[in-house]
Design goal:
Length: 175
């Protein structure tokens, strides 16, 4: 039985003749429609290309980052006593308390249900504390007490269940 191979990123071998000739139908109809479809949702039949999709914002780096592994944002440096951690910028965040003028109250934004988030915290020369939002749920209801040494590094790993950020683990003074 003759076969034809299509390049889809994986090798797909299809029968193209004989009594099981479903491969020709797949190639000539379904595959042509899939490979020629504009996945931006406009339905104009144009293939999706990185240059046009990024320019017209149908694909953004934020949307892409949510589809693979861990992404790390730039280091957050609170200028006062508040800091928003925007998880659209990456699910791994670094919060450097060195620039804070006092203890820091944290807010979180752009959480995705089922996602894991990690926040690394770098302590300042003057020890700072963090007040976490009520939506962050700690084991036994008690938030961690941060390391107090200058430049001490602590981390908190959390899971978003759709409503709350459940703290899964933390480690103090990674130095």
């Amino acid at each position: 039985m003759p076969f034809e191979t299509l390049n889809t990123g994986i090798e797909l071998t299809l029968p193209t003749s004989g009594t099981n000739n479903w491969g020709t139908t797949l190639k000539n109809t379904t595959w042509t429609k899939i490979s020629g479809h504009d996945h931006t949702g406009s339905g104009d039949g144009l293939q999706l290309t990185a240059s046009t999709a990024l320019v017209d914002n149908s694909i953004t780096t934020i949307k892409l980052s949510k589809n693979y592994g861990w992404t790390q944002a730039s280091t957050l440096t609170p200028a006062g006593t508040t800091q928003d951690i925007d998880f659209d910028n990456g699910n791994v965040q670094i919060l450097d308390l060195g620039s804070a003028t006092g203890n820091v109250t944290v807010t979180v934004s752009n959480l995705a249900q089922g996602s894991l988030y990690t926040v690394f915290i770098i302590q300042s020369a003057t020890a700072r504390t963090i007040t976490w939002p009520a939506s962050v749920k700690w084991p036994q209801g008690q938030a961690i007490i941060l390391s107090t040494a200058n430049n001490a590094k602590d981390y908190v790993q959390m899971y978003h269940d759709g409503t709350e950020l459940q703290v899964l683990s933390w480690d103090l003074d990674l130095n």
